[in-house]
Design brief:
Helices cover 47% and strands 15% of the residues. The protein is α+β, with helices and mostly antiparallel strands. The chain has two domains: 205 residues, Beta-Lactamase (2-Layer Sandwich); 103 residues, no CATH class. The protein has a five-stranded antiparallel β-sheet, with helices on both faces.
């Protein structure tokens, strides 16, 4: 039996089983692909692409984010590119907006449909790294035969979601491999790098969006979550990453400014934020030789604000 036909039969058999979908995330995705999106795993057409005007519109809407993300894509590609991998960044709908791959691998990746404007949403491509990552909003590795379409089973795809400054899903960061000998162990190593870079992009984007605010970082039990708060000159929390919103019970979307003391000062709140802020103030005061005015300037806050935070955190000028 041809490989594609065997794969299609396997996918359809498992997708038809409610019990399999209940116990396996992969089976649940295959089932969505068949029942919700009406896809056929044996379909041989390539990925669809948005037209040039639509792609330009999407790039325009994400222009600032793309500028922030670009050096991180370069850094990730420098780590994985020589092993036959491509690095891609999509929008929240799974449309490829930027990519990195070597000239030697360009023909393979283009033939697989990993070009600019390609739609890799789960609704279009079934189970795949980009689309399933965005659908389930989590890190995923879709290794070869785990793909829905038989035509995609030569690939290994490793993905992590990227969240915007409003806590909402913004993009997917993807590494796709053209290597026939790619192992699952190697995929997991790449997966850790992808998750780390997705977090770095999220943090950099948040800092760019709140460039005039003081950024306070929290400790987090989730290594994939960037837990940052943006605090303005009036000591109001004006921004929070998804990780920080989860830690403090804040909703996604536009944030209603709240006094930092109401969040940071809660006895039942994450102590990591207060420890991180205290450490930042101590470092600034040490660099300034104990000069509060100089430390305040270095931190980008007012002298009175620094005094208030020092008092709150149990610090004195000595």
């Amino acid at each position: 039996m041809p490989r594609g036909s065997a794969h299609s039969d396997k996918v359809l058999d498992i997708a038809a089983s409610p019990s399999a979908a209940a116990h396996s995330r992969l089976a649940a995705s295959w089932r969505r692909s068949v029942e919700k999106h009406g896809l056929d795993p044996g379909e041989r057409r390539g990925p669809e692409r948005v037209d040039g005007a639509q792609l330009r519109e999407r790039l325009g809407a994400m222009e600032r984010f793309m500028q922030v993300a670009s050096p991180h894509l370069d850094r990730l590609y420098s780590l994985v590119g020589q092993s036959g991998c491509a690095v891609l960044l999509t929008d929240r709908e799974g449309v490829v907006l930027d990519r990195r791959f070597s000239d030697a691998d360009a023909g393979v990746f283009e033939s697989w449909g990993l070009g600019l404007g390609a739609d890799w949403s789960e609704a279009r491509e079934g189970t795949n790294g980009i689309g399933t990552c965005l659908t389930e909003q989590r890190r995923v590795i879709i290794h070869r035969d785990e793909h829905f379409y038989a035509r995609n089973t030569a690939m290994s795809c490793i993905d992590a979601p990227v969240y915007g400054s409003d806590g909402e899903l913004l993009a997917a960061l993807d590494v796709s491999s053209a290597r026939a000998d790619q192992t699952e162990v190697f995929n997991r190593l790449i997966g850790a790098q992808v998750a780390q870079m997705a977090r770095a992009i999220e943090e950099a984007n948040f800092r760019a969006d709140f460039g005039c605010a003081r950024i306070v970082a929290a400790e987090s039990d989730d290594p994939d979550a960037a837990a940052l708060l943006a605090i303005d000159g009036d000591d109001l929390v004006v921004g929070a990453t998804r990780g920080a919103r989860r830690a403090f019970g804040l909703d996604t979307g536009p944030l209603t400014p709240r006094p930092a003391s109401d969040i940071l000062g809660r006895e039942d709140g994450p102590a990591g934020l207060e420890r991180a802020e205290r450490a930042a103030l101590v470092r600034a005061l040490a660099r300034a030789g104990g000069n509060v005015s100089q430390a305040a300037r270095a931190l980008g806050i007012g002298r009175a604000t620094l005094y208030r935070r020092m008092k709150k955190l149990g610090l004195d000028e000595s």
